[in-house]
């Protein structure tokens, strides 16, 4: 009864269509979830993500849960997550992708999940890393460790939101650093992020992670453009 009263005055709405959710729905309504553009890369062993990094970085496996389209529902979800503090979207997407990856042998070998980090100034301004809960949920599903203190960002680049694709591609001055390198040696790492556009940020992270001995790296993101 209390829950019904709260919902009456403060109804929970779908993050995409903004319509009220039913008692059995969370974060996204059934209709919107049904129409989210899933990639199914990991289900069909598609190599689209791996091919994106061909000649740039060596990855074991790579996937993205959703396809990102300008002014689409996925953009709306990521915007709500990054700029309106709706971190439960990270929980929702992480649980979804984590459950799917946990059924695939190729991802059962993951030892450690690491998120692409924010620069400390951006973290202080936003108050959270939008990838944290996403990564934590995936790590939980894979029974892997999660650590966001090993990879740090040491340059504070400007936001990518309003940049054209070519400008993002050329924004290759992002620098990262690795702390306690020995903690990732001989491990299979899953590097997680919110969105792949050109892949430049993930490539920069991988270059640093590969400085450790005998490291295998796979990639999982919320979406890909």
TrEMBL record:
Domain Phosphoribosyltransferase: 161-221
UniProt keyword annotation of Membrane present: no
Keywords: Glycosyltransferase, Transferase
A Pfam family matched in the record: Pribosyltran
GO MF annotation list: glycosyltransferase activity
The family this protein is said to belong to: Belongs to the ComF/GntX family.
The protein's name: Phosphoribosyltransferase family protein
Lineage: Bacteria, Pseudomonadati, Bacteroidota, Flavobacteriia, Flavobacteriales
